Amino acid sequence: QTDPSSPIYGMPAVEVWRCKTCIVLKRSMGTGYSGVDNPLFYKDNVRMLFGDARESMDTVFHLLRESQERLRSLGAATPDIRGRGDVEREAEEDFPVATKVVGVIRERGPGEQRVSITPSIVPKLRRMGFSVLFEAGAGLAAGLSDDEYLKEGGVQVAESAVEVLKQADVVLKVTAPMLDEVQVLQGSQTMIGFWNMFGTQDLLEALGQSMASFINL
Question: The Alanine dehydrogenase/pyridine nucleotide transhydrogenase N-terminal domain covers which part of the protein (predicted)?
């Protein structure tokens, strides 16, 4: 990045090494197309996971869920160790009146276990003037119950994805929009997610014909 003699000199770089812990998914320690040894791989705060990226992340999510379940079971028999001031600050937070609705729907892709937001994100959205409309069971595959979202306040649970798609101003997704989802959205709505830039012809045509806005991150 900073060495003029390097074949990748001047290329933009996301400085992930500044994180407390950085996890790199890679098949091997090979240099790749650039032929450059990446110094990131040798930093003390970096952990390397070799092999198939999806399998590696599934393993990480599984371990995190197990850890979360253990903490919950301990918490059930352990007194709340937070100070009274912390509890009072949480109770006293005054959120602005919601003027827009964020929608969260269940991801329906094969083998997909993720959900677009976790309960901890709800207060952040509320501070920005959003309420949350959540499809029932949308977080179950990720180990998150509807009650965990509801206890954050400002959340309503809808019985179906269609209900969310018809009422939300902004719909958050992890994967590409489904054809039937696109067909429900209206011109004043926006869907945001992560997906491959290439899609099926039917989906591309539907996106082009829809009056809604679609943002691919």
Answer: 103-215
Integer Cα distance of 21 and 16 in angstroms: 9
Q: What is the pTM of this model?
A: 0.59
For 147-193, what is each residue's pLDDT tens digit? 999 999 999 999 999 999 999 999 999 998 999 999 999 999 999 98
Tell me how many domains the chain contains: 2
On the question of pLDDT at 80 being above 80, the answer is no
137 burial type by CB count under 10 A (0-12 exposed, 13-18 middle, 19+ buried):
middle
User: Do 62 and 131 belong to one domain?
Assistant: no
Host domain of residue 22:
1-75
User: What distance in Å separates the CA atoms of residue 217 and residue 126, rounded to the nearest whole number?
Assistant: 22
